[in-house]
Amino acid sequence: MTWKLPPQSSFTFGKHSEAELAGFEFPVHPKLQAVTRLALAISGCDFGIHDGVRTVAEGEANFVAGTSRTHHSKHQDGLAVDAVPWSNGKMSWRPDHCFQVAVAHQLASRFLRIPIIWGGAWDRMLAELVGTPKIAHQAYVERFERANPGTKALVDLVHFQLVLP
Fold this sequence. Notes:
Layout lengths: L14 H8 L7 H13 L4 E5 L4 H10 L14 E8 L2 E2 L3 H18 L3 E3 L14 H15 L11 E4 L3
Antiparallel strand pairs: 1-2, 2-3, 2-5, 4-5
């Protein structure tokens, strides 16, 4: 199937986002950067990179704080980014804004044929989600909680990670 892209936006990454993509010892993987940069170029919602490559200390601090379920995240390998929407000059974690960023990443992933997993539906490739990311997210939460009674689904609507072969 051939995917068409929407018109280009005028959004560009700022200094913080570029620094997050550049990383400390190594940059975010070039394929993930390609998807994220294309997503920004076609997005109807401006977003920035809140987290790109994380240090071991940052990863451990997130685990201790309960914002990560693992001691070693894909961020530490340059395989994940947190793309957070901007709204009224501030970063926004509102689901309706996050779903717009997910749509842009979904289109970019499909167009570039680069497999991405999104933190709103961890059990499927973003490009393969049926319907909108919002619908896919709701279905994921239902599947997870049905399969894992008493356990709340991990949801990270701003998280996008590259899947390597």
